[in-house]
């Protein structure tokens, strides 16, 4: 069966960007039923920057609750925590020896995150994309739904697969396609339409968290940055208006319609009114998710059981693929 894989870091709360850019796409793939779907909390990726142990444990369970509350069904999809399926890290080591330093050094996320002081960054942060390639290829997954910011990492995954196949003279790892579609591939900060909405932004009002209550969601949207002009009737009218474009994108994604249709229906409306509509829509869509997450978090033992079962199912796939990889590389088994 063809397979879809994707992951999210438990490095903080889930944002509206994660929800619209990733999780809603995951449930679409699951419900379409054309592919086997594997979704992962990537705790090993999270520790490439410091994480307090209790916080990491809490965030991993809360992320799992977020997946479940959003409609990921642990029977229909395989839902796992990365460190519970050790073959991810084992394959990552092989890929560390396939990938080149130069490739890693060109990753924009590495450059952004290591900043001016790369000497002080962890080795794990540098090697991060090789672990990500292992996440995907340990399942021989071909389709990876992600937001725009992960595109370069998926391209690197193809480079790693191609070099492995070439170096060992095999046709073993498949070429992976990033799936980056719809109005929500890059949700921006509510306070700066040129900056990505991010869980690590120090400004709380810049993002909507999946754990925000109805009141907080409405307040943040009403205080979102906009320009003084009304909504344009067509997509071209959003040119050079990043804050306006972002709110329209969010509306389109939440209402599962196109940007063009949202604009056609709101031509000439003032943003004060549009933000009111958007706040109502966001509360209607997100409040049930957030209350279901809170309910699930009351029973962390059940979440742990779901993840243990997920890991068991995942390993039926990952153990044989790792064995074949070791065999190709020449490890005595
Ligand atoms: P992470 O945890 O930063 O983000 C998880 C997913 O959410 C998407 N996303 C967004 N989409 C739209 N607008 C935004 N503002 C926004 N912010 C985040 C991301 O593109 C991503 O799809 N390296 C990955 C995790 C990972 C992974 C993988 C993904 C590890 N292994 C294998 C796919 C396949 C990351 O840090 O995502």
TrEMBL record:
Gene3D superfamilies attached to this UniProt entry: HUPs, Tyrosyl-Transfer RNA Synthetase
GO cellular component terms given for this protein: cytosol
One record GO biological process: tryptophanyl-tRNA aminoacylation
Pfam family, one: tRNA-synt_1b
Known EC number: 6.1.1.2
Record's catalysed reaction(s): tRNA(Trp) + L-tryptophan + ATP = L-tryptophyl-tRNA(Trp) + AMP + diphosphate + H(+)
Motif position, 'HIGH' region: 10-18
Binding site for L-tryptophan: 135
Subcellular localization(s) per the UniProt record: Cytoplasm
UniProt entry keywords in alphabetical sequence: Aminoacyl-tRNA synthetase, ATP-binding, Cytoplasm, Ligase, Nucleotide-binding, Protein biosynthesis
An example Gene Ontology molecular-function term: tryptophan-tRNA ligase activity
Keyword Iron in record: no
Motif 'KMSKS' region per record, residues: 196-200
Presence of keyword S-adenosyl-L-methionine: no
Database matches in PANTHER family: TRYPTOPHAN--TRNA LIGASE, MITOCHONDRIAL
Protein name: Tryptophan--tRNA ligase
Organism: Jannaschia helgolandensis
């Amino acid at each position: 069966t063809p397979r879809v894989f994707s992951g999210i870091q438990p490095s903080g709360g889930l944002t509206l960007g994660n929800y619209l850019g990733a999780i809603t796409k995951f449930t679409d793939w699951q419900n379409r039923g054309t592919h086997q779907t594997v979704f992962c909390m990537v705790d090993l990726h999270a520790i490439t920057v410091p994480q307090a142990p209790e916080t990491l444990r809490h965030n991993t369970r809360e992320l799992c609750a977020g997946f479940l509350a959003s409609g990921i069904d642990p029977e229909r999809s395989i839902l796992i925590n990365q460190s519970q399926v050790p073959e991810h890290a084992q394959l990552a080591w092989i890929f560390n020896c396939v990938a080149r330093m130069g490739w890693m050094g060109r990753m924009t996320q590495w450059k952004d995150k290591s900043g001016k002081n790369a000497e002080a960054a962890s080795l794990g942060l540098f090697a991060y994309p090789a672990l990500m390639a292992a996440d995907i290829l340990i399942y021989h997954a071909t389709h990876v739904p992600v937001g725009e910011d992960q595109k370069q990492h998926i391209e690197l995954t193809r480079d790693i697969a191609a070099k492995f196949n070439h170096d060992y003279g095999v046709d073993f790892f498949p070429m992976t396609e990033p799936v980056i579609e719809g109005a929500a591939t890059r949700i921006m900060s509510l306070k700066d339409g040129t900056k990505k909405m991010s869980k690590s932004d120090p400004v709380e009002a810049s993002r909507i968290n999946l754990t925000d209550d109805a009141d907080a969601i409405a307040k943040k949207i009403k205080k979102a940055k906009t320009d003084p002009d009304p909504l344009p009737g067509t997509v071209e009218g959003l040119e050079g208006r990043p804050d306006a474009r972002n709110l329209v994108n969010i509306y389109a994604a939440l209402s599962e319609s196109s940007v063009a249709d949202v604009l056609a229906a709101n031509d000439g409306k003032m943003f004060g009114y549009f933000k009111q509509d958007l706040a109502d829509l966001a509360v209607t869509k997100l409040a049930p998710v957030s209350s279901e997450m809170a309910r699930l978090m009351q029973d962390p033992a059940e979440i742990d059981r779901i993840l243990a079962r997920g890991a068991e199912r995942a390993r039926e796939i990952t153990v044989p693929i790792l064995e074949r990889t070791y065999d190709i590389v020449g490890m005595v088994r």
